[in-house]
Amino acid sequence: MAASKYPALMKPLDLGFTSIKNRVLMGSMHTGLERYAKSAFGLREMAAFFEARAKGGVGLMVTGGVAPNRTGRVSPFASKLTYSWEAKRHRIVTDAVHEHGSKIAMQILHSGRYAYHPFPVAPSKIKSPISFFTPRALSEAGIESTIDDYCRCAELAREAGYDGVEVMGSEGYLINQFIVGRTNKRTDGWGGSYENRIRFPVEIVRRMRERVGKDFIIIFRLSMLDLVENGSTWDEIVLLAMELEKAGVTILNTGIGWHEARVPTIATMVPRGAYSWVTERMKKEVSVPLVTVNRINTPAVAEDILASGQADMVSMARPLLADPDFVVKAASGRDTEINTCIACNQACLDHTFQAKRASCLVNPMAGYELKYKDLMKPTTSPKKVAVVGGGPAGMSCAMYAAQRGHKVTLYEAGEKLGGQLHMAASVPGKEEFWETLRYFSTMLAKHGVDVRCNTTAQAEDLHGSFDEVVVATGVLPRQTAHSWPIGLSGVDHPKVLSYIDVLRHKKPVGQRVAIIGAGGIGFDVADYLSHGTNDPSLNVDAFLQEWGIDKSLKHRGGLQGEEHQTSGRQIYLLQRKDSKVGKGLGKTTGWIHRLTLQKRGVEFIAGCSYDKIDDTGLTITVKDKKRTLEVDTVVVCAGQTSLKALEEQLKELGTSTHLIGGSKLAGELDAKRAIKEGMLLAGSF
């Protein structure tokens, strides 16, 4: 057998009483599946999800957070584990994982003041800035009872067949709230000095170890970088790590940032492996295995981290949503076939904050393994399928249809596949979209799709030559006056450009710019034009400087003064709506985009009407007051119109035709919807 390209990644990890078959830990995610764990069907869905990753070769998996008692639940219907009958039902999950030689740990998470229900508890009566309810301060008896609940939960996890538990001690949840002075104002033996504040986590681990025995994995998720004001110092964090080691932890997992922190930690603009230096520093202080986290999405990045000694394991959560077979593909040298996580958050974290089940933009099957299990079965009736348009919808449909055994021809009028993804990938911080293009290109070739670029498909040529024709021709930007939903004179002025002119054709843009439209595209254009010469998404040190992260760890919480980069351009981002600019952006990333542009001096203007464009600039009206923005470029990001002409022609000819992606619904560009529509349609043939 040939040696692995990634020997450090594939090396087993000996824990003494047991061994993990490789160095990949699937990190905990709020997938929403845990909410349904109360029913037999819900547990079957959860089992199918984890079994897919076990089949894919993951060494150790960690479930989403399970509360040790009712007050600890994240939301009113979130999962808990407090009774033996609940534990027995989890056997379907653990048995499914063990069948494939993988291990699974259950995360015990008490939300504390982060709870989205009316009965939260915390060390002190201090409301969180990201939740609705003020917590009740735990009494000393309540603290003792909560510690016992943690230990009982671990015992029940063992009864359920889990190989271990992960104690969630980071991200600002209850344990973290006890550790840090900003949230622990107690004056008893559980507050005051740092030694008193860390009694809570240390006692949890110590008593838990006594009750579960020596041959059970206890992972502790330790906040090594709080990224909030008045967070822990590095010396304090090291002291806690050493005390946890004495108390009996098996593995220390790295936690980065509280949920209320105003620093990006896992979004796509965060460089790959941006926080592994923190774990590396902790390796000098303790002897238990350490896991590093965040933005590790390729086997090459993981191998470099492990081979250089920065960590003993790598945690990959969303990358295993994107591709459950990540590990087996890496082990067998099929790197280019890995469906890479682009850290967009659109179908995972954003869904979680909308109380939806998490899935994945680039892999719509994630989280729905049971529902879609028959969708990609080989067809018994192969068809000739034409897909017109090589954007995300067209590539998805062509790939999945060919995978099922249909004979597929993909027509693309342009020089290369990708459509709007090419523009997205050109925006600083969104370079990961190149990985999506690489994946589709690889898989289209693997499954024998006949790709014809520089080819405009004609209705008369398609009619009668194919059993099914899919129209995925996408959109055109609204640019001309008659296609706009607004009145504006001077639209044909030479200073007017569309977002396609800027992002795809790279036309020159002046130093003073007005951007009409503050949706996702408008923000992308503003980011692209305000970007300096040093791309923080590709350079860890530049990223740390931009967001004020103290790599020396001399400052409490790991924060220091920020160093903002500017492009020298004056940019105005305009919208007709009177609501907050950027309100419609993703829940977990919108604040990052807004804050980034504000730091770069971009001026947001809401509630404006557009009057005219002339040599002077753009004249607008805001709250009945006219204002002329003396700009030399106006970039229009005022929406798109669908390209449906081909579908109409085919229908007139009586051809079986299907419309997907932007051709079906223009709106904001939506790769999540496009890729899913392509998959579902391919599964219906």
TrEMBL record:
This protein's record includes keyword Cell wall biogenesis/degradation: no
Pfam family, one: Oxidored_FMN
Domain NADH:flavin oxidoreductase/NADH oxidase N-terminal stretches: 9-336
Signal peptide bounds: none
Keyword field: Flavoprotein, FMN, Iron, Iron-sulfur, Metal-binding, Oxidoreductase
Protein name: Uncharacterized protein
Family recorded in the similarity comment: In the N-terminal section; belongs to the NADH:flavin oxidoreductase/NADH oxidase family.
Biological source species: Monosiga brevicollis (Choanoflagellate)
One term of GO molecular function: iron-sulfur cluster binding
Keyword Electron transport on entry: no
Cofactor or coenzyme needed: [4Fe-4S] cluster; FMN
Domain annotation FAD/NAD(P)-binding: ranges: 383-648
SUPFAM superfamilies associated with the record: FAD/NAD(P)-binding domain, FMN-linked oxidoreductases
Gene3D superfamilies cross-referenced by the UniProt entry: Aldolase class I, FAD/NAD(P)-binding domain, NAD(P)-binding Rossmann-like Domain
